[in-house]
Design goal:
Length: about 325
Amino acid sequence: MEDTKSSVRLVCLVGGDEKLRGQLSLACGSEVRDGKPQSLRDGDLVVLDARNSEIVSGGNPFTVCREIKENPRVGVFLLISPGDRYSREIARFCMANGCLVCDEQGDIQELESLFDSRSPRTKVSLDSLLARLERDLEGNSDRREAAVERMREDDLQDGFLSLLTDAETGLFDGPFATFKLDEEYKRATRFHQPLSLILLDCGIASWPEDASDRSLVLAEVASIFLSECRDIDTLARFTESEFLFLLPGTGVDGATAVARRMLVQLREHQYSVEFELDPVVGLATIPASGISDKREFLERAEACLAAARSGAGEDGLSASCE
């Protein structure tokens, strides 16, 4: 603990009060600066009060976090309220190191996580890792070869996954969604299991012009989807404003419930940036008559989405196209 504390050069609290600053000072063993400094260096630590909608002039906690994390070696934590359902997911998209819960009495919970979670490390070259392995595993050739092979596989996997991900939302991209549609369709038909396909159009007339505002809006939208779906579901940004969801083992009733929750959350969420959206959903589920391949499955969902856009269905959701 002490070694980790000593590695922090500067600790700052942005948007908090004197009580919070005192708790952080005691935990860090050093004085905590009030406000965001002009410059930050590797190893510095910044705590942002995410309960404060505007902690600096013209900036909310999440945009400030993204700005600070342009240097990944600076640690950033967000203070959130108990029961906050969304800030943790948004914080992840904003590259924060973590969140700290601040209770109604103004006490910060689990302060030790400030030091358990290190700032992201810079990527070490493969040559450097190999050299370290040579030192650590010298004299054990079998173990050395196995470790090198695992490391190469991990490096290839990380690079491969980055190619399949939409940079603005962190969800899968359209081409990978098409691949997963084929894979899940074949699996569902082979094992006679239901599979639901949701197409959701956010109905955004225009995205925010500012790049940081656009990124924040997309992060908040993606966080809603992540909170409503399971780990086994496939979430993808299919087009500019359309999102595709594959729900294995889920019939029409379950998929309808998920889709309705998404629509409610999208409409009721208090976004950090003002903009208008009118989300609609098209839903298709197999097995169903008239669907014999993945193309017809997707076309059924697209037809339902078009019906929802035209006002058919109920409350922006259409799942009845044949």
